[in-house]
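Task: complex structure prediction.
Instruction: return C-alpha cells for all chains below.
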Amino acid sequence: MSPKITGELLRLLRNAMRNCKYVSEPIQAYIIPSGDAHQSEYIAPCDCRREFISGFNGSAGTAIVTEQHAAMWTDGRYFLQASQQMDNNWTLMKMGLKETPSQEDWLISVLPENSKVGVDPWIIAADQWKHMSKALSSAGHSLVAVQDNLIDVVWTDRPERASSQLRILGLEHAGVSWQDKVTALRGKMAERKINWFVATALDEIAWLFNLRGADIEYNPVFFAYTILGMNSIRLFVDLKRLSDPALRDHLQLDSPSKADMSIQTFPYESVYTELQAICAALGPKDKVWICDKASCCLTQVIAKPHRTPIPYTPLCLAKAVKNPTEIQGMKLAHIKDAVALCELFAWLEKEIPKGTVTEISAADKAEELRSQQKDFVGLSFPTISGVGPNAAIIHYGPLPETNRTLTVNEVYLIDSGAQYIDGTTDVTRTMHFGTPSAYEKECFTYVLKGHIAVSAAIFPNGTKGHLLDSFARAALWESGLDYLHGTGHGVGCFLNVHEGPCGISYKTFADEPLEAGMIVSDEPGYYEEGSFGIRVENVVLVVPAKPKYNYRNRGSLTFEPLTLVPIQVKMMSTELLTQRERDWVNEYHRKCREVVGAELERQGRKQALEWLIRETQPIV
Amino acid sequence: MSPKITGELLRLLRNAMRNCKYVSEPIQAYIIPSGDAHQSEYIAPCDCRREFISGFNGSAGTAIVTEQHAAMWTDGRYFLQASQQMDNNWTLMKMGLKETPSQEDWLISVLPENSKVGVDPWIIAADQWKHMSKALSSAGHSLVAVQDNLIDVVWTDRPERASSQLRILGLEHAGVSWQDKVTALRGKMAERKINWFVATALDEIAWLFNLRGADIEYNPVFFAYTILGMNSIRLFVDLKRLSDPALRDHLQLDSPSKADMSIQTFPYESVYTELQAICAALGPKDKVWICDKASCCLTQVIAKPHRTPIPYTPLCLAKAVKNPTEIQGMKLAHIKDAVALCELFAWLEKEIPKGTVTEISAADKAEELRSQQKDFVGLSFPTISGVGPNAAIIHYGPLPETNRTLTVNEVYLIDSGAQYIDGTTDVTRTMHFGTPSAYEKECFTYVLKGHIAVSAAIFPNGTKGHLLDSFARAALWESGLDYLHGTGHGVGCFLNVHEGPCGISYKTFADEPLEAGMIVSDEPGYYEEGSFGIRVENVVLVVPAKPKYNYRNRGSLTFEPLTLVPIQVKMMSTELLTQRERDWVNEYHRKCREVVGAELERQGRKQALEWLIRETQPIV
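Output:
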C-alpha cells in the first residue's frame, strides 16, 4: 500500500485557510472530523473529506491541518493502516497511548498566540464543539465556524450526494408500525415535558419510518432529517424520492389517517430554516430535544433555554431494544449467514492447498455465498479478510497491493457480515488450514476464554456493558497480553452494524444499561504486529437469566449467541480451557449443528453440512 | 435505635429560609451537603450539620429541605441506617435505584415556579454547584449562595472548631521532606505552566508538610489551607498552633534555608481575602490550579480565565503513590494490626460461649488490643462490629440500643482499622464461632472468590481500578447475588483511610490508573437484610507483575496483600473454590503464619499464636 501524496492538496487547503472568500480572517488551523452532517460512522463518498485530504480511510480519525503541521488522531485499530496510507506530511497521533496529546493540547502547543481554529459546523458534533471551544478559549485561541467546507473547496472532483430508492419495511419485518413508534416517542416527550424532537441520526430516522435506503454503502439508510412535534411530523428528504405510490401510501402522505400522523415533507436542505422558524415560535417554556452528538450547526439554532441535549435520543433507546419480530428476523438472518460461512470454510479447506485463494478472492467468495441467501441486500461492512501479518491490522481490508495468498502455514482471520431484509450480521472467525503453532493456539485460547467469559456472564438487570469488558480480557491480561479495542458494539436490525447506546468497552462510561432484547457483539482479539491476528466474534442477544437467587428482585441477564458458526477446535489449546469452558464450546457447537445443520440440509448443501458436522464434534 | 425528632428543628430552619436577616429573598429549598469547607468525608462535630438536622449520621448523604418536604439522598451502604435514624418528616432517597430521582430532578418536580434554592457556598463543591445550578436554571429556578449557614442559625449548642496539637512526621516515617515535596509540586506546576496552586483538602496539606493533627476524629489532619506559588508558600492555620519551637523549626518559620521555601503563615479564616489579593494581582496569562471538588466559594474567587480546575490535584496524585519508606511503614502497621486481631479472635473464641461479649465490647476489645501496639495513635474509622442482622447494615456502628450479644449461632462481621505513626489499616473479617449454615457458607465463598479474583488479578499498567470491579462480583452475579457498594478505596499512610484518586468501583470512570506503590482496599461483600452480612477486606499494595508475555512493553501489575489476618476456613465451602483459589488461600495463610507468627512470638502472645497456627492450616 503506497501512501497518498498530499503535499499539493495541503498547500491548496492552507491557501483556502487564508482566503477571505471563505474566512473573514485567516485561520491558523482547520479541523477535519470524519463524519457527515448526521455524525454517521460510515459515510458516503461525497463526505469522505478526511480520507480525501490525508489518504487514511479507516472508520475513525480526525485530521487537523495547521500552517506548519498536519496531524491525524486515530485509535489502536488503525495505527498500522494509517501509518501506511499517509505520506510524510502527516503525523500519526496514536490515541490511547499515554504520550499522545489530545487534539486540544496539541493545538495549544503548536499554535501562535490568539489563533483561530476553523471547522465545518455541520460536521462537528455539538458536544465536541463545546469541548474544543472551551479548551481553545482557555488558552487564548478561538474555534470558529467556517460555513464553506474548505476540503470541498480543494476537492475538484467530489462525488454527488446519493439519493437511492427507498425501501418500505413491512410490519412482518419491522414488527411495529411507524405510527405506533411516533406515538411511543410522543409519550416519552410528554413524560419529560418536551415539545419538539429533532432527529438527525440517519438510522434513527430509517427505523422510525420503517424505511431503508442505500445512500451509504453497508448502512441501509437515507439522507434525511425529522422534526417531530406533539401534533406534527416534518420529514426533510430529497423530494424526488417520494414519488413512488407505495411509498406515499406507506407514509400516508396523501391521506393521513389522523391529523397528528400527517407527515409534512420538505427538501433535505431546508431543515436549518425550518428549525429556525419553529424555534422562533417557541413559547417561553417550550423545550426541544436534540442529541448532544448532533451537528453544532443545527444544535445552535435552538436557543439555549429551549435546548435539552441528550446523550441518547428516545429513538436510539427504543431502537436498541429489539421487538419480538426483529429478534426473530435477526435469528433467521444469522442462520442464513451461518450457512454461507459453513460453505465458505468448507470451500476454503479444499481450495487453499491449491494456492489459488487470496484474501480478496476469499472475501468475494463469502459475499457470493451470502448473496445466494434469501433477502440478501448487501454487506454490512467491508469484509476484513487477512492472513498472517495482515490479520494483525485490526480493521484491515485487502487491497490489490496488499493482497496475500491463503496458505496452510498462516492463520486466517475473516470478519464479515451482511444486511438481509430480516436482519444484520457481523461475525469473525480465525482459522488455520494447516497446523497452527503452539503460540498461536495459546493466544487463540486466551481470546476464546475471554469470548466465553462475556457470552456466559450472568449479571444483574441494570448493568452497563462496560462493566463486562474486563471479563473478556482477564485471561489475556494474566499472560501479559491485551487488545486495543473495545469488546462489543450494539448491532442494528437491518440497520447499521454499529449502533448505540449499549456496548461493551473500557472506553466509555456513558453507555446505557443492558436490557433483554438488546443485541451486541462479543469480539475480543489478540494482534501480534507483523505476525498474526486473532478475533472471535459472535453477535449475542441479551436475554433474562435465572440464577439460583434473585437479590432484591432485580433479575439477572445473560447472552444468547445469535451467530451460529463453529469456532475452530484446531486453534484451541483445549488443556487451557476449564471444564465449564469446554462445556460451553460443546453446547455452542451442538446448537450450531442442530440449527444450521437443518438449514444446510434444507438447502441441500452437502459439503458444508459435512464440514459443519466434523467441526462440531465435542471436545473433551 | 429511635429516630431523631426533627419537626421543631425543621420549623426553625424553614423560618430561617424566609428570614431577611439571612437571605435577601425567601428561599424555597435549602441544600445541606455532608461535608465541611474542605469537602472532607469525615468531619468534625461542628460540621455535622446534615446529621444535626436529620439524625442520620452515615458518612455520605445530602439533605434537602423545602417548605413542604425534607428528603435525604444516601447510597446502599446506608439505606437501613438512614431509615432507622430519621423520623417521619424525612423521605429517604435511595441512590442507585432506578426509581430514585436525582436531587435536581426531585427539586424540579416539587418546587413552585421560579424558586430559589439556597446552599452554603463553603460546603458545596464547585463541580456540584455548577451541575446543580445548571439543572435548576434550565427549569426556571436558581441556586443561590447563602453566606450564613442556616443550620448553624438553628443549632444553638454547636460545638467549637477543634485546634489540636500538630505532630511532626520525621523523615523516618515520611520518607521525603516537605521541601522536596514542594519542589516536586512546583515542577508539576511549571510543566503545565501553572503559577499558583490552592490546596484545600486537609489530607493533602498534612501530607505536603509532613504534619499530622487530630482535628477530625479518625483522620489525623488539621484545619488549614495552603496557597503555593513558584516562589512563595502561604499556610492558613490557627496561628496559636505554631508556637511550638520544634514545629517552627520543622517548617523553618524563623530561618528558612531558601527564600522560595519560606512559609508565610496566616490565620485560617483569611484564606478568602488573601486569595482575592493574589487573584487581583494575576498577570493576564497566569493560571491557578484548584481541585474541581474544592468549595464553590474559594473556586469562584479565581476569575474564570485564570482558573484551571482539576479533578485530582498533583498532591493527591503524589500522595497516592507511596514511597518506599511509606510502604515499609504500612507493612509494619499491618503486622501490628494483625497481632491485635489474632489476639481478638482468639479471645472471642473463648469468651463468646460465655454469652458476655457484645458488639460494643468486642469493638472495645479490638481497640484495647490495637492500643497496646507500638506507635498506635487511634482508630482509623468507627469500628463496624455487627452480628446477625446488624451485620447487614453495611456501615453499622453498634449503639447501646442496637447492641447485640455475640453467640455461636450467628455470623459476626468486624470491619476496623487503626492509625499508627507508620501507617493506616482497614480490615474486615466475617467469622462464625459455632457452625455456619450452608447458605451462609455459600454466600461467604462467593464473596471470597470475588476477593481473590481482584487480589490475584494481573492487569496492564495504566488500567483504571474501576475495570477490576466486576471481577469481585462475577461469582456473586452468577448466583443472582450482588452488593451495593464499591469494591475498594485508596488508603492513606497515617492519613485518611479513604483517599483518592484510585479505587475499585463500578460507580466512577474518573479514577486515575493504578500504579505500583498505590494502596487500595479489596472488600466485596454480601448483605441479606434482616439476616446476616459478609465482607472480606484486605488492604493491598499495587506491585509489578511478571506474566509470561509483555504486550507492547506496557508491563503488568497485580496486588500484594498488606493485611495479614487469617480468613476463616470454617466459613468457606471449599468445594466451591477452584484449585487456584485454594492455592491462593493457602499461600495467603502461609504468609500470615510466617510474618504475623514471628511477631506474635516476639511479643510473647502465645494464645493468639496458637489460634493463628490453627487457623492457617492448609485447605485441600
